[in-house]
Amino acid sequence: MMSDAPTDRGADADADADAASGTGDPVEGDVDAERSGGADARSGESAELLAGLADSMEGFARLVSAVFVTVFALVVASAITGPVSSLAVSAGLVDGGTNAWQVLRTVVQFGGFLLAVLGYLAFTAEWDLVRLDRLSAREGGIVVAAALGLLTLQYGALFALAEIGVATGQNQAVVPPGDPATYYLAMIVVSILVVGPVEELLFRGVVQGGLRRAFDAAPAILLASLIFGVVHLPAIEGAFVERVAYVGVVVLLGCLLGYLYERTDNVLIPGLAHGTYNAVIYAVLWAGV
Asked: What is the pLDDT of residues 157-178, one digit of tens each?
């Protein structure tokens, strides 16, 4: 009996030490762990909320920038097209209302787009938005295939619209002010060298490129294509439904061009595909004269 007494006193002392240190109270430890876990969860939720808010703000800023550069390009083009064409008429270089006058206005207009794009890139120092490289033989084949794809998509969309009794408006760019044959031949060249490359530099290079900094590929392509389609609206004649239908077709074409840019990483490819597509349309019109 005497030998057991010291053992009991030692056990009691150990229990007292555990109670004092907290290691002997599992319930209190669990409460502390739950409190710590809850704090960590709330901290994580706050971080996710702030990150989501930051992403939303960046997306909104990029969308505003995309609209701004588009409007800026339209303003610059409008500001120089009228004066330059009037100066050319005054200098006797072209006669007003002729094919040469209209072609000149087209070239100057897209020259204004180019100036606006270069000015925007210089001001923002975001030259890397535009990804440009020389074409390989394989990429030349992609240009031709893409142009055929654009034509197929257009005529397929027009056929589908016709099946439900909806026609599209007419783009005034295909209405010649003078002899149709001469105008269409000139626009074949202008489409490949000027219209297609410059439009794609603006809408795919700068607009889609900027949106791509804040959005995944699909929404960036769609938003850029919507802006691309709306820009064409003032040039379309027809009833409201016909004009909207035309814009819808343009948006589809823009999505294909945007996908092409996303996959090839070279704005020259959609630029030449777009120009070739336009050129084929003018060639068809020329052949029908």
From this structure: 999 999 999 999 999 999 999 9
Whether 7 maps to a domain, the answer reads: no
**Cα separation, 16 vs 72, whole angstroms:** 79
- Backbone torsions φ then ψ of 170, nearest 5 degrees: -115, 130
Are the C-beta atoms of 180 and 103 separated by less than 8 Å?
Answer: no
Count how many domains the chain has.
1
Domain hosting 171: range is 34-287
Q: Which residue is listed with tokens 């033989």?
A: 137
Residue 237's beta-bridge partner residues? 170
pLDDT tens-digit series, residues 242-253:
999 999 999 999
In a domain, 16, yes or no: no
Task: Tell me how far apart the alpha carbons of residues 244 and 239 are, in angstroms, rounded to a whole number.
Answer: 9
The secondary element (H helix, E strand) that includes residue 237 is strand 236-237
CA distance 172 to 109: 14
Bigger pLDDT: 31 vs 85: 85
- Rounded to whole angstroms, the Cα distance separating 286 from 179 reads 11
Among 152, 182, 187, 186, smallest CA distance to 171 is for: 187
- Asked if residue 104 is part of any domain, the answer here is yes
Q: 172, 69, 68: which is closest to 113 by C-alpha? A: 69
Amino acid at 52: G
In the DSSP assignment, the letter for residue 204 is I
**Whole-number Å distance between alpha carbons of 289 and 286:** 5
* 18 assigned to some structural domain: no
Rounded to the nearest 10 degrees, the angle between the axes of helix 26-90 and helix 217-231 is 30
